[in-house]
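Supplementary Text 2. Reproducibility record for the structural model of the 286-residue chain.

All settings were left at their defaults, and a single model was retained for analysis rather than an ensemble. We include the record here because the model underlies the residue-level annotations in Supplementary Table 4.
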Amino acid sequence: MSSPLVSLITSLLRSDHFSENQLPGITLLQCYRSIARTPILYNQPGIVLIAQGRKVGYLGDKEIHYNPGQYLVQTLPLPFECETFASAQEPLLGLVVRIEPVLLMELVHDMGAVATKAEPSPLASVAMTDAMFEAAERLLKTLHSPQETRVMGASRVRELIYEALKGEQGPALRAMVQGQGHYARITQVLSQMRENIEQDITVEHLARGANMSVSTFHQHFKDVALCSPLQYLKRLRLLKAQLLLTQDRYNVGQAAMAVGYKSVNQFSRDYKRYFGLTANDERQSA
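Retained model, structure tokens:
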């Protein structure tokens, strides 16, 4: 089922015509070696389709396998750990489609009410239906032509996200824009935490913002994020600090302060515990 996607992605990666700026929000995945379990964060909601190779995500005690014939739907910025299986002979190949909130809102509105008892899951891998596979294939074929990308690209993306809305992760995608229930309120809290990462944040303050008691908030937060609010905040800060150290070349003290740590020593201890190497080693290896 995945072989046509493999050839389409491979030819795009070899093409001088393809650019990730050609159709914003579309990224091709390629990896030629296995990568051990590593903390990561998908910042933007999106759909990840694997054509070849495989990945395993670890969120709390939950394992999320996304292999050929499956796609991952990620709706919230949740720090988790990911392991990649690939080789030079059989590289990991895939497609990432960012989900724009405005487009998602339009689709949810146009689809109307959908009755479901399924509980939203912020990060899950589901089997590709024939319709989802065909939508992915049409999108990849469109990317081979700059003209067709300009004319039809947005429609192909819309079609693929529509198929995801019809699938098992449809409830989670709907919850992103409908703003109803406990899941939606926790979603809003997660966004606020991410936007105010450097500020002092207490569970009591977050619970008031979600209009819940502290105990109720704590339970609903753990149901969604599979960790406590303070654990989530710590992981979020450390992942942001890693980006500052490796991409923006902050020194250790600057990175610690930028993400809300008051103590550089505490930051260094937490960093070593989470990533397995010191923040200073991380910066020097960048």
